[in-house]
Amino acid sequence: MSEGRDSAVGEQGAGKGRKLKKTVESGSGGAKNRSVGPDSARRAKPEVGAAGAAGPKKKPGRPESHLAMVRRARRINRELAEVYPYAHPELDFRNPFELLVATVLSAQTTDLRVNQTTPALFAAYPTPEDMAAAVPEELEELIRPTGFFRAKAKSLLGLSAALRDDFGGEVPGRLADLVKLPGVGRKTANVVLGNAFGVPGITVDTHFGRLVRRWKWTEQEDPEKVEAEIAAIFPKSEWTMLSHRVIFHGRRVCHARKPACGACPIAPLCPSYGEGETDPEKARKLLKYEMGGKPGQRLSPPPDYPGSPAPPLGAD
């Protein structure tokens, strides 16, 4: 996701719902009439009665076939493309090296905290050669806010040296090469490939894994097995954007401890409806980031992002 690749390209979904009513100030381009905010839950929400929004209708005693699951999964993807046409990577970066470093730093912390930390980091060490020559203690101090800073500093020093020595100071564009770098696994490699090089990949982070299991797309827990099973459901061209949409939804609506079921735009398609708050008004209060009328995670969001930028470090 070099800034040239940051704009989200949502697929045209079938069954468009009502336009959402909330107008949000864009962080970098003035006011935009964009379909976002708490009212977005109403676009595909089922009828609401005294007990709140109804979940998907199920036929008792008839398990869902694999073909039906695939069709439902693809419909969810189309619906999410309408809800989040602006879905994008939520790490600030300007080139593949910055994305690689930011993704390594994002382990066990939020993208917001990484974005608040990297401006000073990249000002001090703009290239792999610069970072490879860093004094470890000085590097650790710069990345301290992201947590686990000693282990992360070791990874950054190692991968920077490898880029300098083995790849001419450039981030490689192949999975096999990326996973050889210190601190880089398949998840990090797929983030870099999909967003810096345009190579399709599925990013199985905690949000993605949680949602695809809730949606019964897979029962796997191992990230590589999850990746393989989800890859078999969707065309390769959809993998990167699917990852962004699912992760966006997990961060904003389908939370780990208390999903906002009553404000979920895909509630009719979710077999786990009811695990969270089903009252529409209470559920809307659980929405986060631009869906809840609050700042996003990026200090420098893409132009089509309808929310407001995150505050810099020390301003929150």
Structural description of this entry:
With 316 residues, the protein is mostly helical. Helix content is 40%, strand content 5%. It contains twelve helices and four strands, in the order E-E-E-E-H-H-H-H-H-H-H-H-H-H-H-H. It has a two-stranded antiparallel sheet. A two-stranded antiparallel sheet has the order 3-4. Helix 2 packs antiparallel against helix 8, helix 5 packs across helix 6 and helix 9 packs across helix 11. The chain is globular. The N terminus is likely disordered.
Q: Would you report the number of β strands?
A: 4
Give the number of helices: 12
Q: How much is the radius of gyration in Å?
A: 20 Å
Unreliable stretches, pLDDT < 50, 5 or more residues? 1-53
Q: What is the N-to-C order of secondary-structure elements (H for helix, E for strand)?
A: EEEEHHHHHHHHHHHH
Helix content: 25-40%
Oligomer: single chain
Overall pLDDT = 86
Major sheet description: 2 strands, antiparallel
Distance between the termini: 26 Å
DSSP strand (E) fraction? 5-15%
General shape:
globular
The largest beta-sheet arranges its strands as: 1-2
Structural class of the secondary structure composition? mainly alpha
